[in-house]
Amino acid sequence: MRSITVIGLILLGSAAALTQPMPAAPADPAPPPVQPPGLVTAMDTPNDAGNSISVDWRPSPDEAQGLVEGYVVYRSESAEAPESLWTRVGYVPYGLNQSRDQSVPENGMDFFYRVRVVSRLGASAVSQASNPARSSEQWYNSMRTNALIASLLFVAIVVYFITMAQKGQHLFVRRIAGLSAVEEAVGRATEMGRPILFVPGLSSISDVATIAALNILGQVAKKTAEYDTPLLVPNRDPVVYTVAQEVVKEAYSEIGRPDAYNHDSVFYLTDSQMGFASGVDGIMTRERPATNFFMGMFWAESLILAETGAATGAIQIAGTDAIHQLPFFITACDYTLIGEELYAASAYLARDPKLLGTLKGQDWSKALIVLLLVAGLALSLINPGVRGFILNILTVG
Amino acid sequence: MIFSTNPWVWVAAILTLCIFSFLYRENPFYRFAEHLFVGVSAGYGVAVYFNNAIMPNLYVPVFVHHDYLFIIPGLIGMMFFFRFSSKLGFLILIPLAMLLGMSSGMGIAPTIQADIIRQMQSTIGDATSAGQGGWALVWGIVTFIGVIATLSYFFFSREQKGALKVSANIGIWFIMIGFGASFGNTVMARISLLIGRVQFLLTDWIHIIK
C-alpha cells in the first residue's frame, strides 16, 4: 500500500513537471574562429608533362591543438578576384600542407592559389593569395636519370654481345630442361598421328612473352613441317594471329615444304578471355592433340587450359612470365619454362645471333645487378651514412 | 523451390549448366554453349574495337574535329589488310615494326625503373634497416639472399656447377615457396568465382537462397 502511494506521488510529480513551461532552447553558438594558414607558395610541378602546379602552405597554428579538419585549395586567374571566381581544386586532410593541382587549364598562364582551413567545429578561414605560378611541361624528367643510365648501360651490354654473336663468336647457353622435351613431344605426336596444339598466349604483340612464344612457335613449326605433323595454333589477338600465320608459313618454307603448310592451321578464335579458354578446351577434347604448348602471357584461364590438357593425356609444355599463373602450369604441365627461361628458350632454339646476344646481355646485366647489390649492402653495413646516399640514387620519380 | 520467371535468367542458367556439363565429359550441350560463347564474344569484340578504337581515334578526330593528322596512323593501321594480298603482303611488316618498336621503346624505361631499380632499392633498404631491428632485419637479409640466389638460377651463360649450382638450388627453393603462396592465394579467388556462379543458380534461378 505504501509503495503504491510512492509510485503515485512520483507519477504526479512527473505530470506536474510536464505541465510546467519548457525553457527556451539556447541558439547555437557560433563556432570558435580558426586561424588561417600561413604563407601559400605555388610553383610549377617539376618533371611533368605540364598542366600541374604544386601548392604548399604553412599550416594553421590551430592544427597543433587538433582543431583543424582539413584544407581546401582554390585557384583563380587573379589574386584580387571576387569569391565567386575562385575554383576549388583540391582538399587535403590535416597533417598535410601541400597539394597538387593537376587540372591547370593552360600552360604558361599565371594562376593564384588560396587555402581555406576548415575546423572540426565548422569554422573556416582563408589565407592570402599565393604568388603567381604558371605550369609548363618538361622534356626531361631529371628524377629518372638513374633509369636512363641503367637503360644505356643495358643497351650497351646487349649491343656488345649481339656484335660478338654476329662476328661468329661462340656464345654458350646452358641446356634448359623443358627444351629437351620439345623434340620428344613432336616425335610423340607424329607417332600417334595426332596434332600439336600451340597457344601463343593471350596477350598482344607488344608483350615480350608473346614475341618469345612466336619465336618458339617458329621452331616447333619447323619440326612439324619436317615430320608432317598437323599443327593447331588458336589465337586471341588479331595482330598476333597475323604474325603467327607468317611465322608458321615461313617455317614451312625454310624447311622446304611450303606445300605442306595448311592455311587453316593458324586461326583466330575470339577476343574474349574465357570464350577463348572454352574454345581451346573444346579443341583439346575433340581433336585430342598429343602435345600442348602454352607459351606466352596467360591470366586466369591458365589452369582451365592446362587442366583440360592434362585430362586428355597430352604431353604439356608451358612457358610464361606471368608469376601468378606459373604455379598452375607447374602443377598441371609436364615441363614449365619459368619466367626468363621462356626468353632463353627462344634464343636457344632459334640460335639467332640477335637473340643469343640479347640473352647474353641480360645474363651479364644480372651479374652486374648482383655485384651492385652486394657492394651496396657491404658499403651500407660498413658505413651507415652511405646507406642513405645509395637509397637516394636508387630513387625513381 | 520457385523458379525464376525472367527468361534471361533461364538462358543464363541453362548456359551455365551446359558449361558445367564439361565436368562430366565433352558433350553436345557443352559444344553448343562453347560455340555460342566464342561466336557472340567475337562479334561483340568487333563492335567494341570499332567503338573504342576506330570511333574515338579516327572517325571523331578526322570527321568531327577535322584534325587530318589522324589519317596517317589510320592509314598505317589499314596496312594490316595487305595480308590479303599475295603480292603486297610484305607491307604489313610496316605497321608491325611500328607497333613493336614503339611498345618496346615505351616499355624499356618503366620496366628498368619498376622491376630493377626499385627492387634494388628495396632489397638493399630492407637488408640494412638496422633501425627497425628484430624480425624486420632478419626478413630483410632473407630477402637479400633470396634475390641473389633467384637471380643466379636464371643465369644461362654457365653450366650450373659448383657454387652456381648451390646458389641456383637455393634460388629454386625461394621460387617454389613463392609459387606455393601464390597458388593458395589464387585458388581462393577461383573458388569465389565458382561460389558466385552457384549463388546465381540458387538465388536468381531457383530462389532457394533468399
Tell me what portion of residues of chain B adopts beta-strand conformation: under 5%
Q: Major β-sheet of chain B, in short?
A: none
Distance linking N and C termini of chain B:
11 Å
String of helices and strands of chain A? HEEEEEEEHHEHEHEHEHEHEHHH
Classify the oligomer: heterodimer
Q: Supply the helix-strand structural class of chain B.
A: mainly alpha
Shape of chain B: extended
What would you note in describing this structure?
Chain A has 397 residues and is α/β, with parallel strands linked by helices. Among the domains of chain A are: 87 residues, Immunoglobulin-like, CATH 2.60.40; 181 residues, Rossmann fold (3-Layer(aba) Sandwich). Chain A contains eleven helices and 13 strands. Chain A has a six-stranded parallel β-sheet, sandwiched between helices. In chain A, strands 4-3-6-7 form a four-stranded antiparallel β-sheet, with no helix packed on it. A three-stranded antiparallel β-sheet of chain A has the order 1-2-5, with no helix packed on it. In chain A, helix 6 packs parallel to helix 7 and helix 10 runs antiparallel to helix 11. In chain A, 41% of the residues are buried. The N terminus of chain A is likely disordered. Chain B has a domain of 83 residues. In chain B, helix 1 runs antiparallel to helix 6 and helix 4 packs antiparallel against helix 5. Chain B is extended. The model of chain B has no long low-confidence stretch (mean pLDDT 91). At the A-B interface, helix 2, helix 5, helix 6, helix 8 and helix 9 of A face helix 2, helix 4, helix 5 and helix 6 of B.
